[in-house]
């Protein structure tokens, strides 16, 4: 077991080696000389990535820990960049191996001067190897994912990119950069049913003023990630789309869930066009709680029985009346009945359920219960 002083001397050794003026140029020159595929890259590119990896490795060994998510995110960026540059993963790993060998060789030469024992140096190398193994795994994954995406047809590539975006986290940030979705005001998620025409993605702007967007069929839904809020103009054919945003790339998984909730709520309300979750927040919250819907229906099962064969008729009248903002005439017109019929059915509903639909929360419970009854077979 090494003392804190021993480890401090080990850290000092590593920092001294990494900080030597000639180390980085020597390592970069060795990599570019020994790995042919890397030699074609700009020296500044190789130098910048090598410097960042050295700094991250030094911090990890000093703290006796594995790589952080931030470090792994940088590694993913490196893997993606090298794949887009056409550098094979074997060449990338070879370059890292050449750099490692040069650094640890110099550390061994300097260890005696720093009073670092061979055993302590070995322990530090084993710790570095653990860090490096995790880094290599992330590097290989990012490189291979990028190569697979590039080999797919354009539509499949877009769908693959969208899946990475909608996964959220650091992978989404990389995918957003790759797709050119780098709007400073955040990103927007839009969902629609297949066969619908997606609402315009340019917002209320002049023709030709188009913003970057990625659109594809993902998990059975037309899916878009946009750098601007979608337009609010009516959509031909009465199509509807759910929208959420703005959000950062790391937050797109949550934004997709909100966009799906917006789509479901907009369909239930008969809305068309692009409907933002904030415009149907209450309705979306209601529709999302199947457990509360069941509890409400169970509690009012005696009322349903009391209405008997008229239950669906009453539920449709009350629901239509509430959706018409309690306008008796509008509800009667929508259902092709006399206004007194609507009044009688609202009164009958109130009697059997003890819910007063004229109040704010009573109206919410009444609409929810009626919708639940109508959804039953």
Please outline the helices and strands:
Layout: H1 4-19, H2 23-34, H3 36-39, H4 43-63, H5 69-84, H6 89-114, H7 118-151, H8 154-166, H9 169-179, E1 187-192, E2 213-218, E3 221-226, E4 240-247, H10 252-269, E5 273-276, H11 281-287, H12 290-299, H13 301-307, H14 311-323, H15 328-335, H16 339-353, H17 360-375
Parallel strand pairs: 4-5
Antiparallel strand pairs: 1-3, 1-4, 2-3
Instruction: Name the helix and strand elements from N-terminus to C-terminus, one letter apiece.
Output: HHHHHHHHHEEEEHEHHHHHHH
Structural class: alpha+beta
Percent of residues in β-strands: 5-15%
What's the multimeric state? single chain
Task: Characterize the structure shown.
The chain has 377 residues and is α+β, with helices and mostly antiparallel strands. 66% of the residues lie in helices and 8% in strands. The protein has 17 helices and five strands. The protein has helices at residues 4-19, 23-34, 36-39, 43-63, 69-84, 89-114, 118-151, 154-166, 169-179, 252-269, 281-287, 290-299, 301-307, 311-323, 328-335, 339-353, 360-375; strands at residues 187-192, 213-218, 221-226, 240-247, 273-276. Strands 2-3-1-4-5 form a five-stranded mixed beta sheet. Strand 2 (213-218) and strand 3 form a beta hairpin. Helix 1 (4-19) runs antiparallel to helix 4 (43-63). The radius of gyration is 31 Å and the shape is elongated. The N and C termini lie far apart (71 Å). The model is unreliable at 200-210 (pLDDT under 50).
